[in-house]
Amino acid sequence: DLLQIANTELKRRAMLDDLTEVMNRLGFDSSYGEIWKKSVRDRTSLALVMVDIDHFKCLNDTYGHLFGDEWIKRV
Asked: How far apart are the C-alpha atoms of 37 and 13, rounded to whole Å?
């Protein structure tokens, strides 16, 4: 039982970004196919949202990476 719990947690952590806890590329890739099929089957809309922070490099370079990390978490 403990091994199964540990493996489930490792799988979850492998699919999330450490900083934001938002699904990373591995998580996206593993979920996308199932979500797409469900959307087609149920004839429901599907949307993908991407976020870009304008001039983030300048903010990160000026105020430091810790400040940049906090800014990313807020967004």
From this structure: 25
Give DSSP secondary structure letters for 9-73. HHHHHHTB-TTT--B-HHHHHHHHHHHHHHHHHHT----------TTHHHHHHHH-HHHHHHHHH
The amino acid that residue 19 corresponds to is L
Give CA–CA dist 33/47, Å, rounded: 14
Above 90 in pLDDT, residue 5? Answer: yes
Q: Which pTM does this prediction carry?
A: 0.65
Round the CA-based radius of gyration of the chain to a whole number and report it. 17
What is the SS3 assignment for 1? coil
Q: 35 with 46: CB under 8 angstroms?
A: yes
